[in-house]
Amino acid sequence: MPVIKKIDLYIIKKYLGTFFFALGLIILISVVFDFSEKVDDFIEKQAPFKAIVLQYYLNFIPYFSNLFSFLFVFISVIYFTSKMAIHSEIIAILSCGISYRRLMVPYFIGASIIAMLTFFLGHYIIPHSNVGRLKFEEQYFKKQYRSPEKNIHRQIAPGVFIYMDNYNIKADHGTRFSMETIEDGQLVSKMMADYIRWDSTTQKWRVHNYWIRELDGLNETITSGVDIDTTLNLFPAEFKRPHTIVESMTTPDLRNFIKEELSRGQSDVYYFIELYRRTSAPFAVFILTIIGVSLSSRRIRGGMGMHIGFGIALSFSYILFMQVSKEFSVSGDLIPLFAVWIPNFLFALIALILYKLAPK
Questions:
Q1: What is the per-residue pLDDT across 141-174, written as a single tens digit (0 to 9) for each?
Q2: Which of 11, 78, 114, 268 could staple 311 via S-S, CB 3.0–4.6 A?
Q3: Which DSSP category does 54 fall into?
Q4: Nearest alpha-carbon partner for 133 in 44, 36, 43, 65
Q5: CA–CA distance, 261 with 243 (Å, rounded to integer)
Q6: Nearest residue to 315 (alpha-carbon basis) of 289, 345, 279
Q7: Which sequence spans correspond to the domains of the chain?
Q8: What is the distance between the alpha carbons of residues 148 and 163, in angstroms, rounded to a whole number?
Q9: Threshold 0.85, pTM exceeds
Q10: Long-range pairs of 114-121 with CB within 8 A, sequence gap ≥ 24
């Protein structure tokens, strides 16, 4: 392990200092733009100033910071490394016999500090802060209309499966309802109905225009009726739960939630994307650090402006590629694990090429 020298401490200090300065500056700008965009909602819903500051923005800042930490890393590395190149500091370091690989050590130490911080925040701290932010958004922001869910298949208990053609979350009403009970691979009971509705008074589901088919060996019994109350391991709140609910779960809770949803026949891609993103983001810090150093350590005509311009273009292409791969996953054409990690693999290859081409 290389011994930490003064030049290492100098670069680490430059790295972390520039990162947190850029982070603070961009957060300030983001808060101003976010407030100007949502001020009408705040006024319309009469949100208290204390709630806006403490419940929303105090939780919005760490969420936003962690979500785009890799972008701040990239800009920071390019900025201070370009200044070092312009002042011939990089040339002086390499001229003293320090190899380019050795020069990367303090950068990796700085990247490790940020990556570990991002990893810990993303898996355990940010989800807790998101609870207050999401609660505030649900209470004070304009709610968007959500279309009825369609073709709902769920396992609500071992061997018990339900189906609804669609479910209206406003009326708590599901059409073309059916429920099957299977034991040892054999169908023992099946209920079908025109529709099912939640009764908030009895806290039960009420099934309308139903018939029930029960099988006992070769014996078959069919009963029917106009309506009947039934108790299901299913509640209306499950249909109204937004995808963003997983953002308020720590990683252990999220894993248990996904496991429970899978046991009930649910497999929302967004849950897996959120789970895998929390680990892939810290790795992006190392990849973009290599790219940033490789691009900005060369002194070129045009100076820092060329470095920053090209770096910002590359970083936004990373964000664009990441969003496109997620959309492919949501549409069902790409496995969520691959969708989250493909941008890292592609830009890791770009980082390797740029590192090989960097002046040594």
A1: 765 545 556 788 888 888 888 889 888 888 888 8
A2: 78
A3: I
A4: 65
A5: 13
A6: 289
A7: 6-142+267-357, 149-239
A8: 14
A9: no
A10: 114/16, 114/19, 114/69, 114/73, 114/285, 115/282, 115/283, 115/285, 115/286, 116/282, 118/66, 118/69, 118/281, 118/282, 118/285, 119/278, 119/279, 119/282, 121/62, 121/66
